[in-house]
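User: GDT1 family protein, Sesamum alatum:
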Amino acid sequence: MGLSVVQGFTKSLAMTVLSEIGDKTFFAAAILAMRHPRRLVLSGCLGALIVMTILSAVVGWAAPNLIPRKWTHHITTLLFLGFGLWSLWDAFNEGEAEELAEVEKELDAAIKSNGGETKENNKDADDRKKQSRPFLSKFFSPILLKAFSITFFGEWGDKSQLATIGLAADENPLGVVLGGILGQALCTTAAVLGGKSLATQISEKVVALSGGVLFIVFGIQSFLSTVES
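Assistant: Predicted structure for GDT1 family protein:
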């Protein structure tokens, strides 16, 4: 039991760090931290990633109870090999800093569509805004909710989410959750504290290559391992 937790933790930590560094949500956290209080951005982004990690692990844990373990094992193997090839393809076909520019453009477009967050702060306008706020905004900072929603929906259906589901189906779910949360915390904290200056120094090609190799290693290991009945 202890060994399986450590194995799941190690694999999840390595996979999460290499999947999240240079990912869209990493860049989104870095850009948001330049425009808003870091504490709120970190809380929102990290909260979304923790929720997503736990949800993914629960789905992965439940899968072998719904589908024969042999099938979930083979699906996980194919997922890892497929994601490895996908990451290698991205490494050789995407330009450096392309993702950062794309995320920045999307965030700017979102701000403009919300009225540009102009600084015309009328008391009447502020009162009206407070009254028309969504329910959750009355209890949580709008910035925290914005960081949470951008990160959560950015991760939904992402390669790292699907890989976490596959990993939890094949490894100890507790280890996968703990490793995933630690990996998310390290990456998100680095993005928020380092900001755009750190984001621009990261080589997306090197990260994608490393992630691709890691996924392929996991896939080969899964292929060669025996299926527990």
